[in-house]
Design a protein that fits this description.
The protein contains 14 helices and 16 strands. It is α/β, with parallel strands linked by helices. The longest helix is centred in the last third of the chain and has 16 residues, at 251-266.
């Protein structure tokens, strides 16, 4: 398979001129990249981003969203900024504004891809494990999309990049009728659910507070989980410091389902209708959906753009793995060294497994060539 071409702008700024700043370089990189090949005049174009959470203050900055929006407009298309419901829709719109993502700052309206209640979606065939996924209606119907992904760590897939973004971000939390077709089906399809050991529980309420779906409650010294609300993300087990909660999610099975979800979302687009941008800044160890953000595990690297989600994730992963862990970060706490498998060592699941699965399903190529901005 031929190598996928990726364009790269480094986060380093050594000349102290606007054109040498990362926003300036990103602007030039966007103008160099042939957007007109992927989007047509007057087309509606989704700019898919993660809006972050209250407390998780490191999503992609409005500066880079705005420049992406402006480039789409320059191509004659009409962009909007979209995301799927992770917390109640109206609350999520408030969170976006709280994190500086709004029409005023980014230059395009914000649209919830699966509606205020997260149930506006369409079942799409995905693969043998999940069967079907509930793709958000707006993402299903829009003709073109720019996937603007914050590359970072993730507890279950080791990293979140383009593939995870289009999968978890393009699929709704649940379908009105079909159980397991939503985001929860990608997290866990086994009949086993979160296990609770009362003997280890201190009733600190951290699990109740961290649940984005308000599915947990503690009544009369007993943990209750509303299965109709729970999407099996495992966040409650993640924050339990005593080991009282454990989840049955197998990392490799999770990554298989994740990639099947990505395949389902991608199947709703014609060829050459999606552009991918991976932003490698504020590379924190956890997802932006957590209610907090740790310091970066490595120094800011820069921004990649291309049309292959597998190649852009492989290149981003390679760049992070080659970087030196920053002091006073989770990576340095664990004594990790550069040149190894930094994100795999950080979270234990091997992120290469998911990328290889994406190749197996025909979603792209691991092979890439990088064109640096000054070589364009």
């Amino acid at each position: 398979m031929a190598k996928s071409r990726l364009y790269f702008a480094s986060a380093r700024n050594t000349k102290w001129l606007y054109q040498d700043s990362l926003p300036g370089k990103f602007e030039r990189m966007l103008s160099t990249f042939d957007f007109e090949r992927y989007i047509k005049k007057d087309e509606w174009v989704a700019v898919k981003i993660h809006w972050g959470s209250e407390g998780a203050f490191r999503p992609i900055r409005a500066t880079f969203i705005r420049k992406t929006v402006d480039r789409i407009k320059a191509a004659g298309a009409d962009p909007f900024i979209t995301e799927t419901v992770r917390i109640p829709g109206l609350d999520y719109l408030h969170v976006a504004n709280y994190n500086g993502i709004s029409q005023e700052t980014c230059g395009a309206p914000l649209v919830l891809a699966d509606g205020l209640y997260g149930t506006d979606n369409i079942l799409v065939a995905s693969g043998p494990i999940i069967g079907e996924v509930a793709v958000a209606s707006v993402i299903h119907d829009v003709p073109a999309m720019v996937v603007l992904s914050h590359f970072k760590g993730h507890i279950q897939s080791s990293f979140g990049g383009a593939l995870k973004h289009i999968s978890m971000g393009g699929v709704s939390a649940r379908h009105r009728a079909k159980k397991g077709a939503g985001r929860g089906g990608m997290h866990c399809l086994t009949p086993d659910r979160i296990a609770w050991d009362k003997k280890l529980c201190t009733f600190c309420m951290a699990c109740v507070e961290v649940c984005p779906r308000k599915a947990l409650s503690i009544e009369k010294k007993k943990l209750r989980i509303d299965e109709n609300l729970c999407w099996a993300c495992g966040r409650c087990a993640r924050v339990c410091e005593t080991g009282a909660l454990s989840d049955p999610i197998d990392p490799e099975d999770f990554q298989r389902r994740l990639i099947e979800g990505a395949k389902g979302v991608l199947s709703t687009f014609e060829k050459n209708k999606i552009i991918y941008v991976n932003v490698m800044l504020d590379i924190q160890p956890e997802c932006d959906c957590m209610p907090g953000a740790d310091v970066s595990i490595v120094q800011d690297i820069g921004i990649l753009i291309g049309d292959d989600p597998v190649a852009i994730d492989q290149a981003s992963l390679d760049m992070v793995n080659a970087s030196a862990p920053l002091p006073n970060s989770l990576a340095s706490d664990l004594g990790l060294k550069p040149g190894g498998k930094l994100l795999a060592d950080l979270h234990r699941p091997d992120p290469q497994f998911g990328i290889d699965e994406a190749v197996r399903l025909g979603l792209g190529s691991r092979e890439y060539e990088i064109v640096k901005l000054d070589e364009c």
